[in-house]
Amino acid sequence: MLGWIVVFVLFCLLAYMWWEAHRNRVVRIELSFPQFPDSFRAFSIFFISDLHRRTLAAKIVEEIKGKADIVLVGGDLTEKGVPAARVKENIRRLKMIGPVYFIWGNNDYEVEYDLRSLLIEEGVHILENRAVVLQSANGEKLALIGVGDVSKRKARLEEALREVDEHSFRILASHNPKIVQRLRPEHRISLVVSGHTHGGQIRFLSFGLYEKGGLKNINGTAVYVSNGYGTTNIPLRLGAPAETNLITIRSSEENGEKMLV
């Protein structure tokens, strides 16, 4: 009898871990900064990282459509063994939300086909140690900066910053959050968005291989690390459920708030 109870409990635990790994959540983050350009009013990013083997759920596309200015893929869009057709389908679903920007993750280099060409053919903007500068009607600027993967020694932050105007509000996208160790005050990065860690993926109480995803203030820079949407090695999660993110940025002078962290 005891053996059957143990088997039932283990089955329930595995079922719950599978459910956590396949959830379709949109976690909303509201941020305000005194230096954010007033003329942009609000700027919203749909951030999704670490899809790996998953296909983006249509319900997320419907939930976010019309609410995001851009889509930012935070690396590990795919991995070894994932067919190109699935990657194309994910990109086409993301394009229904808004223009898609992409940074490389460590697993993106594993695929057997030419991922770069696929992305270009689908109209994805690749931010590989470069920046794109968005400008409001009155000339205020927002810079979206992307670097290569840190663990592959492909991150060239200084190179990416060369394209950025001195007065631009700066958002840095890096698949691996370890990029924060390279930041200096003169870089004037206001926000960093990352993935890679999966929030530890499987956590026991407060213990995991990595910290659970979330928002921190590190030396005056807001850093958001997402739990990510997919999984690697095993399709299970515990204590770090799958997520996508809608990050909305405003000026704190507009509503009297300080940076929310």
UniProtKB/TrEMBL annotation:
Q: What's one GO-annotated cellular component?
A: membrane
One family name in Pfam for this protein: Metallophos
Any one GO MF annotation of this record: UDP-2,3-diacylglucosamine hydrolase activity
In terms of InterPro entries, this protein maps to: Calcineurin-like_PHP, Metallo-depent_PP-like, Metallophosphoesterase_sf
- Report which residue ranges the record marks as coiled coil: none
Sequence ranges assigned to domain Calcineurin-like phosphoesterase in this UniProt record: 44-199
- BP GO annotations: lipid A biosynthetic process
List the PANTHER family.
Answer: PHOSPHOESTERASE, TRANSMEMBRANE PROTEIN WITH METALLOPHOSPHOESTERASE DOMAIN-RELATED
| Protein known as | Metallophosphoesterase
Originating species: Geobacillus sp. (strain Y4.1MC1)
